[in-house]
Amino acid sequence: MPDSASHLPFFYGSISRADAEEYLKIAGMIDGLFLLRQCLRNLGGYVLSMVYNLQFHHYPIERQLNGTYVIAGGKSHCGPAELCEYYSKDADGLCCALRRPCNRPSGVECKTGVFDNIRDNMMREYVKQTWKLEGDALEQAIISQAPQVEKLIATTAHQQMPWYHGIISREESERKLYSGAQPDGKFLMRERKESGTFALSVVYGKTVYHYKIDHNKSGKFSIPEGTRFDTLWQLVEYLKLKNDGLVTVLKEVCPNANTPMGLANATPTIPGNRRANHDGYTPEPFKDTRHILPMDTSVYESPYSDPEELRERKLFLNRDLLLIDEVELGSGNFGCVKKGVYKMRKRQIDVAIKVLKMEKENEKTVKDEMMKEAEIMHQLDNPFIVRMIGVCQAESLMLVMEMASGGPLNKFLSSKKDQIPVSNIVELMHQVAIGMKYLEERNFVHRDLAARNVLLVNQHYAKISDFGLSKALAADDSYYKARSAGKWPLKWYAPECINFRKFSSRSDVWSYGVTMWEAFSYGQKPYKKLKGTEVMAFIEKNERLACPTECPKEMYQVMLDCWIFKMEDRPNFENVESRMRVYYYSIANKTENGATSAASDKK
Fold first, then answer.
1. Which residues are registered as beta bridge partners of 48?
2. Burial class (CB in 10 A: 0-12, 13-18, 19+), 482
3. Annotated active-site residue in 3, 136, 230, 448
4. 237: helix, coil or strand?
């Protein structure tokens, strides 16, 4: 996961205070000259180092639990860049306002810290093992829970460090330190058998000194009376720079022969790492989860992921296994959608049942359309697409699908505008991009992608639905040509769809752009002043929907690229999904709730 400040030219990464002061000296010691560096004391924090009156001043920037950044006594900011911009306009407690960035000299790269080098792969392995995920599902899980998992694995990262020896006795630590040369500052860390606490053993003057590591009620580690740190590896890195109560600074590692070679592939041992229950529901893997993630729900994994259930899978379902509630979830020209329960071999699952309206004059047409939709959906299996359980022919023809009880995306957003931050919308639209990428890879064209056809399982989990107009292309086909227009959602259609009745994944990309616009407009209707037939003239004049008020410029650029007139010049869903993932990844560790989050996204 990239550092929130990695794009800033005045960010130096994991450098010491002395190094920061040296860079500031070289740059001229001008009042208001500043740079940003990683903070060793607080996980995810920074230090603002600056010059005033020929003196150095260092201000710790702490990352709060809600993802914002703050200098003690100051205002909260959504990111380090925004914080620096604020203090460039108003000193607000600093020695002076920030006036000139001390940018990294040519050839100087950000210095990565010890945790930076192993963090991403530790996160990947933890998520992979916890939920047994692969591919796009794994990537989405990492993005969705990056802030929480980063904090979790940071507290166990010392297990992967060569200086950590696990549970060994005081005598065993001395034996290891006396083995070979004994330079001053040779050290190791161990876990104490009797108490489960930690100790640091250090050589100085051919004598081994042992220091108990305190772990206070707030979870901070320190040498007694010393500086407190969020993690053990931060404490060790700090003690390499300053002895802080030790007899000497830490210099040479006494390596643990059992530490895996190639730390990046190591997986942390995390207490309470829970697996999925037999009913297919995966519980929360840690206590501080801020919201229910997609993979924490019962509809993330396919109901047929169990081989025994898969053997029983058929398109047509037994009516006796289907319980139908009288409560209607919605209705349309086809009939209505009701809530129900389907009894599988090992468990029961909640389902939505699309019930065909019985009207003689159009019964055959509607039935044929529903069967086409069922046959298409029955072939699809992706966490971000509503799965077809099967078809039931009884008192009516019924399509039985996974339940997504949150309803359509456009209605949800319009009813909860003040409660949904922009970062949440980015999260949901990235999930839609994953689902559409899946369809693209399988040569499926949706033809009706719109916010009304994106259903929510919960606020943080979206699924694509309504495949009534979808077509499966032959392996050697790049597009489908419709024989007749029919009732088409013209405001979501690309120019080639309207002009030539040509449909492809690239025309779905156009529809995705309109769906994005709906989402970032909190459910507004696109082109609301234009009739469907007038939209084409609007587009041909090179006019496009305006950027929604709170939409980040990066997201509007994705929309504009989706609306490139020539089909062949538009990005495909592989490109769109990648861009959505990168942007969401970049904001994943920012605020996630309330007004603070909404403010963080208004740039």
1. 36, 59
2. middle
3. 448
4. helix
Assign 556 to helix, strand or coil: helix
**DSSP assignment of 380-392:** ---TTBPPEEEEE
Nearest Cα residue to 583 out of 422, 384, 414, 409: 422
Strands 454-458 and 397-402: unpaired
Q: Is there a contact between 221 and 231 (Cβ–Cβ < 8 Å)?
A: yes
The C-alpha angle 424, 426, 427, rounded to 5 degrees, equals 65
| β pairing state of 164-167 and 186-191 | parallel
Token representation of residue 509: 């990309």
Residue 513: other Cβ atoms inside 10 A: 26
Q: Any idea what DSSP says for residue 109?
A: P
Q: Which amino acid is it at 406?
A: G
pTM of the model: 0.61
The strand pairing partners of 356, in sequence order, are 335
- H or E stretch covering 167: strand 164-167
Query: What are the average pLDDT values for consecutive 10-residue runs of the chain, which has 603 residues?
Result: 81 94 95 95 90 96 81 89 94 96 93 82 81 78 72 84 93 95 96 83 96 84 88 92 92 85 41 33 35 79 78 85 84 79 88 78 69 77 89 85 91 92 94 92 89 94 80 51 64 91 92 97 94 89 94 96 95 92 72 39 42
> Which tokens hold the place of 117?
């080098």
Task: Give which of 340, 311, 305, 347 is closest to 323, Cα–Cα.
Answer: 340
**Separation between Cα atoms, residue 547 and residue 560, nearest integer Å:** 9
Contact criterion met (CB below 8 Å) for 381 and 302: yes
What is the helix (H) or strand (E) element at residue 336, kind and residue range? strand 335-343
**SS3 label, residue 166:** strand
Question: Of 48, 107, 111, 104, nearest to 237 (Cα)?
Answer: 111
Query: If DSSP codes are grouped into helix, strand and coil, which group holds residue 170?
Result: helix
For residues 458 and 436, what is the distance between their CA atoms, to the nearest angstrom? 19
In this structure, what are the phi and psi dihedrals at residue 253, rounded to the nearest 5 degrees?
Answer: -75, 135
- Are 71 and 48 in contact by the 8 Å Cβ rule? The answer is yes
Give the helix ranges, DSSP H, for 162-305.
170-178, 232-239
Q: Determine contact, residues 47/238, Cβ cutoff 8 Å.
A: no
Clarify whether 448 is annotated catalytic: yes
Q: What angle do CA 212, 218, 221 make, to 5 degrees?
A: 30
**Amino acid letter, 494:** A
